[in-house]
Design the sequence.
């Protein structure tokens, strides 16, 4: 195995996991993009970050994209080199929009484009490595494949399948100023939940797959959850209050991933958008990213 090019640029979308009831399983790619250029060099590794995370992220070997590129090259049996990395980031960090999964998937897809036998790093291999690095496959699956995905892990590793989407599905994202670490949001979850709550979520997840495919009239009941959002409410009170208020007004609103952003599976109207903006939310209308991570020509 050898490197067949010395530079590659990859675009990767933001993602929202869970979509309400589909905890650690469902994900949706949304049209907010990071762009990463990786150049193999003879010298030391350097990282330049523009946009989100410009002043917060490591600038050497500890950068997550660098670590992912190296993991991909190792799996492919390709030689390592110094890396010159340029990241132009639009995905908010620490907001439940899959920024870490995007970084990992971008690095792995970049590694695939650099090597002489890219089939070694096919989508299955990329998802498997990304799941090892992330701990779960939901964000990584939708970042890799685009659209909506269902992901799972079994004895054979991580797997994902695309979920058919209504082409008219709208997406709005409410981004707060505050951040919340995923590990903090996970720490408040109980080790066990009542059987009735697990059964409730199983039914709502099945209903959500139907709703995403065209039954938009079912989106509000289909996005109900009893497994994680209420447990996390005290850790992100403005998020919980926004979700409750939007749902009371008939919007299919959920916590985006581990939060604190809010995902609405519809296009918010101007009045609601203005009201939310007046309360400090940055309201995005990115739509669905139908394409996942890909090399830019």
Sequence:
């Amino acid at each position: 195995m050898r490197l067949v090019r010395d530079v590659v640029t990859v675009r990767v979308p933001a993602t929202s996991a869970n979509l309400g009831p589909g905890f650690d399983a469902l994900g949706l790619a949304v049209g907010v993009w990071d762009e990463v250029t990786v150049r193999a060099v003879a010298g030391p590794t350097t990282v330049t970050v523009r946009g989100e995370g410009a002043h917060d992220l490591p600038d050497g070997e500890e950068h997550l994209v660098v670590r992912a590129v190296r993991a991909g090259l190792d799996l492919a049996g390709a030689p390592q080199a110094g890396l010159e990395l340029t990241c132009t980031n639009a995905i908010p960090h620490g907001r439940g929009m899959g920024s870490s999964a995007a970084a990992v998937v971008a690095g792995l897809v970049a590694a695939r484009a650099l090597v002489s036998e890219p089939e070694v790093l096919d989508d299955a291999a990329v998802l498997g490595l990304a799941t090892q690095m992330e701990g779960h496959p939901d964000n990584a699956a939708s970042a890799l494949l685009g659209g909506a995905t269902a992901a799972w892990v079994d004895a054979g590793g991580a797997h994902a399948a695309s979920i058919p989407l209504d082409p008219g599905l709208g997406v709005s994202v409410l981004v707060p100023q505050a951040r919340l670490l995923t590990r903090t949001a996970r720490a408040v979850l109980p080790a066990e939940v009542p059987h009735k709550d697990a059964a409730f979520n199983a039914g709502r997840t099945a209903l959500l797959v139907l709703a995403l495919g065209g039954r938009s009239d079912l989106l509000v009941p289909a996005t109900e959850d009893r497994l994680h959002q209420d447990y996390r409410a005290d850790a992100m009170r403005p998020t919980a209050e926004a979700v409750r208020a939007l749902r009371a007004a008939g919007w299919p609103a959920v916590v985006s991933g581990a939060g604190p952003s809010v995902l609405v599976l519809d296009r918010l109207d101007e009045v609601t958008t203005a009201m939310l903006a007046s309360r400090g939310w940055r309201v995005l209308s990115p739509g669905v990213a139908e394409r996942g991570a890909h090399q830019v020509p």
